[in-house]
Amino acid sequence: MDLVVFLPLLLVMGAFMFFASRRQRKQMQATIDLHNSLKVGDRVHTTSGLQGTIARIDDDNVDLEIAPGVVTTWMKLAVRDRIEAETEAADDLTSAVAEEGTPKTEG
Fold first, then answer.
1. pTM of the model
2. Could you report the per-residue pLDDT of 78-96, keeping only the tens digit for each?
């Protein structure tokens, strides 16, 4: 009787663990692929939220230009994702609309 109760529970737990580890492996492979495809000139986000342009890459580190003439060195593992040109254009458009809609105060 006890085995009949615990067997479905064990099967459900085993299936959950299998699918969770599979998803984690896919995410890890996607991150590895991203790090291998980085090149000088790419705009990236770091895990801490900093945005910058890759100025130099070596095996484990990237140099990010975060402002004209300001370069910081980061571990490649800190790069979370690449900023696509479409995203930058949409952000610029959103900023421009927000600035136009802001009421001007005189005084």
1. 0.61
2. 999 999 877 555 566 666 6
Determine contact, residues 50/66, Cβ cutoff 8 Å.
yes
Whether residue 90 contacts residue 98, with contact meaning beta carbons closer than 8 Å, is answered with no
Calpha distance 89→64 (Å, rounded): 20
Cβ atoms 53, 64 nearer than 8 A: yes
CATH number at residue 47: 2.30.30
Q: Are 75 and 60 in contact (CB under 8 A)?
A: yes
CA 89 to each of CA 27, 83, 94, 95: distance values in angstroms, whole numbers, following the listed order = 27, 11, 9, 10
**Angstrom distance (rounded) from CA 71 to CA 84:** 21
Q: In terms of domains, do 62 and 27 share one?
A: no
CA distance 58 to 101: 44
Name the H helices within the chain: 2-37, 85-101
Phi, psi (degrees; rounded to nearest 5) at 25:
-65, -40
